[in-house]
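>> received
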Amino acid sequence: MTGVSGGAASRAAAVEGGTTSVCRTARASGEANAAAAREEAELLQRLRAGDRDGFRQLVEQHGGNMLATARRVLRHEADAQDAVQSAFLSAYKALPAFDGRSRLGTWLHRIVVNAALMRRRTLKRHPEQELGELLPTFDHSGHFNGSPRRWSEMPDDALQRRELAAQVRQAIEALPEAYRVALLLRDIEELSNDEVAEQLGVTVNAAKIRVHRARQALRTLLAPRFAD
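>> returned
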């Protein structure tokens, strides 16, 4: 009985220790978030007061992420950089109206997405491409032609994951422009269907269809890499 009691006590101590560790981690995370919120509130005050150093800090903190977002929407570096500059200018003008209910990073993300899409609209438009044979086909009874291929598990190796991520990016780039942008906005930039529709100037249903077809085409492009 002593051994059983000792084992139970050990397990109880382990559980208690684990719980304490989790609580400490959560408390540290909460304190870090509170500190970040205070710093952001102070930065926002400086920005609204016209502090140039504050705006420089804003660019240093968020410029990299904004440029990465613009690059995903626009294919050329110069266009992406122009979009980021436009986004910062728009943000500066809109600061008095920013209510602070969202994080600065979230607010700036939406602004740079808008700027990138506006930049895209000013570029020379190419004839709309279709997805063609990248979409699945169905027989006269409505059944899928062919058997869907099972996908393998995600690789555990970090190098393989990086290679896979690069292949996914290449596949997205291979999509026709309209479908590529719709997929990026919905699945990468995490806009809602309503927001995607608004940004693309189409109905919500049309936006859903475009995203759905883009996902199907992307699956076709990636199937050789993922299939068992």
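>> The chain has a mean pLDDT of 78.
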